[in-house]
Design brief:
10 helices, alpha/beta, globular
Length: 223
């Protein structure tokens, strides 16, 4: 049976289209927030792009909000699934807003984009989530060393699930108070079935760190 709508009903705007701007931004923020446990398979950036295509108003609001794009920066997804032009557009939209950056399994082809981004935007990164379940090449080990040794007053959240070498590199910088504003530290050392003593770091010694703002710290290993 067909539905007969009145002219008034046909012209009525759906309730979600008349939500106040501040409410919409809160909804968008939930879509854009990186979840380090899920972003590998369901990048927040995809949800954000989909939302931006719903209607002209939503797109306009999103394009005017760098802090939304800057919280959904899955660098591995951007390198592997987006064109160079669109990657550059995403970075442009993020601007100079505080960034949440998610990285996983940095392959040889991913490295140049990932490390160049970290170098250029390190001063804006508030949250860094690294999930690297593969063996790093010596070149990438050196690049991670250089990244971790760079001081940052901006970094608040550090989430590292990686090999012993990379884990040690970041922990050493934490201990040296290179990230004095750190609030949340989540570290998982992954064995990766490696036996080479030159790769694994056993019983490292750390200096005493001064982290007055640290609220939560988690350490564990996987085997």
């Amino acid at each position: 049976m067909p539905f007969n709508f009145t002219k008034k009903q046909r012209s009525a705007r759906p309730p979600i289209s008349i939500l106040p701007t501040d409410i919409l931004y809160r909804i968008f923020g939930l879509s854009a927030k990186v979840d380090p446990h899920a972003d590998k398979d369901s990048p927040a950036l995809i949800a954000l792009r989909n939302v931006s295509h719903v209607c002209a108003r939503w797109r306009s609001l999103l394009l005017a909000a760098p802090s939304l794009w800057s919280q959904a920066l899955n660098l591995t997804y951007m390198k592997r699934s987006l064109s160079l032009e669109y990657r550059e557009e995403i970075v442009r939209r993020a601007g100079e807003a505080e960034m949440a950056v998610f990285i996983y399994e940095v392959g040889l082809e991913d490295g140049p984009f990932v490390f160049e981004f970290l170098t250029n935007h390190w001063h804006n990164i508030r949250s860094l989530y690294l999930y690297n379940s593969k063996y790093n090449s010596p070149e990438h080990d050196q690049m991670w060393l250089e990244v971790a040794q760079r001081p940052s007053n901006q970094l608040r959240n550090l989430w590292i699930y990686a090999s012993s070498r990379t884990t040690f590199t970041f922990l050493h910088s934490v201990a040296l108070s290179r990230f004095p504003g750190l609030e949340f530290l989540d570290i998982c050392e992954k064995n990766l079935d490696m036996k080479d003593e030159d790769i694994r770091v056993e019983n490292p010694d750390f200096p005493s760190a001064s982290l007055a703002g640290l609220k939560e710290i988690v350490f564990f290993s996987t085997y």
